[in-house]
Amino acid sequence: MLAICFAAIALFEWKQLHNKPAQGKKAFWWLFSLTLVWNIGANFISWWPNPNRFILYLLGWI
């Protein structure tokens, strides 16, 4: 479900990229693909950390 929410937000942002240069569109698609794969992995693989847990791993010492 979380992956679908991120995908919907990304597709909404994609509508705003029509007037952006090609570099911005390329960065968007890389980021979109990365977050989509990450969230799908977090939903179906039990040991895969979800994004919130990963942020806690990285920033938990703060």
| β-strand amount | under 5%
- The succession of helices and strands, N to C, reads HHH
Instruction: Work out the number of β strands.
Output: 0
Helix % is over 70%
Largest sheet data: none
Mean pLDDT: 77
Span between termini: 29 Å
Low-confidence stretches: none
Compute the CA-based radius of gyration: 14 Å
Indicate the topology.
Elements lengths: L1 H14 L6 H23 L6 H9 L3
Write a structural description:
The protein contains 3 helices and no strands. Helix 1 runs antiparallel to helix 2. The chain is elongated. The chain is mostly helical. The chain has helices at 2-15, 22-44, 51-59. It has one domain. It is 74% helix and 0% strand.
Can you describe this structure in just a few lines?
It is built from 3 helices and no strands.
How would you describe this structure in keywords?
transmembrane, transmembrane helix, 62 residues, membrane, 0% strand, 3 helices, mainly alpha, 74% helix
